[in-house]
Amino acid sequence: MSAVMESDLKDKKDMKEDLKEKKTAASTKQMMATVEEAFKKWDITGDGAISKYELHAALTQLGMTEAQVDACFRSADLSRDGILQYEEFLEWVFRDPGVVQQYCLKSAKEGLHVVTVDSCQEFWKRFPECENHIEKVFFAAMVILGEDRDLSWTGVKQILKKPHEFLQKLRQFDPGTLTEAKMRKLKYFTSKDFFTQEYFKSHHPIVQALCNWALAIAALDLKSADKR
């Protein structure tokens, strides 16, 4: 192999590793932002700590039973003082990220309220052609919903030409129907270096909402999703 070819291969490898590091850093930053958001939201009294009552109020909304909440609190309350300080909360969610994953999914699903018949029609007026990777966000959503027969901009148009059906499928989607094969196909898109909340935050609200939702779905542990 010539020196030029070896140099090209090394550059490509370095570029790949650099992109991977950036993606990991973005994911960690996103996870931390979500953890901080959850802590502040669940700290109902705003005293800088989460009581068992507050955790119960938060986790039952995610579908947990009282027994499951009790088990979570015992696992997280390392100091055994009956409250969760931020450091304890942080250690707990990184040790068992399933709860935050469910919180992300719930928040992302609530964010889909911006996807309406009117917003779909308005979207097409602004974006007759795809740009800045927005098609990848729709492809990810189409994979999740099992509408991935035509992963092209034409395919996206066909889906959004029937906004009522699209909205119904979004609202009724059950994460328990996910398969390993579908998850692999989804992560082909969500693992791209540009597929982040940060990248799409200034895009159309539909794109932002679908990006957040696809990332939340892709982060799920399938076993946990089945239990829910």
TrEMBL record:
Residues covered by the EF-hand domain: 30-65
Matches recorded under Pfam families: EF-hand_7, MT
Keywords: Calcium
Positions of region (Disordered): 1-27
Biased composition (Basic and acidic residues): 7-24
CDD domains referenced in this protein's UniProt entry, alphabetically: EFh (cd00051)
Taxonomy, superkingdom: Eukaryota
Name of this chain's protein: EF-hand domain-containing protein
Naturally occurring in which organism (per UniProt): Durusdinium trenchii
